[in-house]
Task: structure prediction
Amino acid sequence: MRRRLTALLLALGAVLAVPGVAGQAQAQAAGYRYWSFWQSGGTAWVYATQGPATARPADGSVDGYRFSVSADSQDSAKPRTAPSFSQLCADTPAKPGTKRVGVVIDFGTEADAPSGEKPPSPSASGCAAVPSDATSAEALAAVAKPLRYNSDALLCAISGYPRTGCGEQVSAGDPAPAESGASAPPAGKPSGAVGGEAAGGGPTLGLFAGIAAVLALGGAAFWQSRRRG
Result:
């Protein structure tokens, strides 16, 4: 009995220790390719709590947009420049009934670009003079047309970039869009596994959890057999 349990524990431990198996669990979906929306907190970018279609920035605000691949809002890439409102709107005089909103657009890196496309360079910035009740989307449209949205009002393209795709899931090591029609915007972590296999075909964390549970049960049985002995 002890020999069988020991052999079981060693075999399952070896499975967990194989680098290729562990690596497959980390090589699943890397995230989503999309435009993230930021607002200036005065000294740093802060991830916006509303989408640009509903956010209504105050006069003197600065909005930022960054195109990148990220798993969720916790690891989204920020715009790489953070000019102040005074820098962006120094040449735009205030007018009654309007507000001024600074806009910063970071088209991201070539590594984040869809297959066959290159991000415009350099990144763009400007000052939008819009009605006092205008949304961030309206401020963006004032300085960076054409914009493209999908049927769920997800911002897909700024100044025509990218030409296709909208919030599509991207697999690790594969920068090409999964579908040009796009999935929903990331609302947390990417979904994925069906049964013991992820969409990419590799083992998921559930599989490793099952192996760990077998190891734990095997260990308990081993020590119980020792006590009886």
